[in-house]
Amino acid sequence: MPEILEIEMYRRGAAPVVGRTIESIEAPDDWYVKGIDGPSLARVLAGARIEQTGRRGKLMWLETSAGNLGLRFGMTGRLVVDDVAIIDALEYSSKRLDPEWNRFVIHLADGGSLVMNDPRRLGGVTLEPNLDDLGPDAWDLAEGQLAQILGRTRVALKAALLNQKRLAGLGNLLADELCWRSDLDPRRIANDLDADEVRRLNDELVPMLDELYTRGGSHLGDHVEARAVEGRCPADGAAMMHDTIGGRSTWWCSTHQR
To answer: Based on the number of CB atoms within 10 Å of its own CB, is 110 exposed (0-12), middle (13-18) or buried (19 or more)?
Structure first.
C-alpha cells in the first residue's frame, strides 16, 4: 500500500491544485528529494503554475510551467491537499497525520498547500521523472501487451506482475487478488502460461481495478480477509497457502489456483 488504485485517488484528489501557483517549497528531509537538492528544487518551482496531474502505475506527477514533479508514495505515503487527507487512512500504516511526517510541502500562493505525509519515508519526489523506467500502466494495457510482458520472463507469475519495469501499478494485494480471480497459482512460471490462461488474467485485470476502485481501495479485494493462517478460500472453502514470492508475502487457494 498504496497501489495503483490509491495513487489514482491521489491524482484525482489533487485536482484542486491545478491552475494554482507555487509560492514556495518546504523539503525538511533532503533524503526525500531525489536527483536534486531541496533548495535547488525550491528555486526551480517557485512561481511555477501547476498545469495538470498525471499518473503511470504508482508514480504520480504534477505538470508545472517549470517542469514535471514526480511524486512517489512508497508503502505509507499519504497526500494532503488544502489540509484535507485524500485517503483517511492506509491499510498497514498509521492512522495519524503527524506533522513530523510531512516530508515534502508545496505552499501555494493563495494560502493552500499540497503535502506528502510519510511515516516510513519510503517515498520521494523528483524533477522530470523518467517514465522509461516504468512498464505500461496496468489500467491501460493495449491488446496483446500482457502476453508480451509475461512471455519474456521465466520468473514466477506473481514476481512478473510486481515488476514495475514490466507492468506498472500492481502491488502485493492486487497481484494476489488477480491471480486468485484468474484461478492461477502465483508460483507458476510466467512464460509457461498458455494463451487461455493469459487471456483469463487479461480479462480479469481491468474489471478488478474498476471494481476495487469503486469499493475504496486495494485492500478490499474478495480474498483479502482469507490472507491469514487457517484462512479459507472464499470461492471454495479450501485452505489458503502461504509463501514468499518476489520478496512479498503471498497467499493463494490450495485447490482452484493451478
So the answer is: exposed
Query: What's the CA gap between 86 and 76, in Å, rounded?
Result: 13
Cα–Cα distance measured from residue 60 to residue 70, given in angstroms and rounded to the nearest whole number: 6
CATH architecture of 4-132: Alpha-Beta Barrel (3.20)
103's CB contacts (< 8 A; 6+ apart) are: 27, 28, 29, 32, 77, 116, 117, 118, 121, 123
Q: What angle do CA 218, 98, 6 make, to 5 degrees?
A: 15
Handedness of CA 247, 228, 154, 191 (dihedral sign): negative
Task: In whole angstroms, give the CA distance from residue 158 to residue 20.
Answer: 41
At residue 196, does pLDDT exceed 80? yes
Query: What was the pLDDT predicted at 88?
Result: 86
pTM for this predicted structure: 0.95
CATH class of the domain whose range is 135-253? mainly alpha
**What pLDDT is attached to residue 29?**
86
Tell me, what's the pLDDT at 123?
A: 95
pLDDT (0 to 100) of residue 78: 95
- Spans of all domains in the chain: 4-132, 135-253
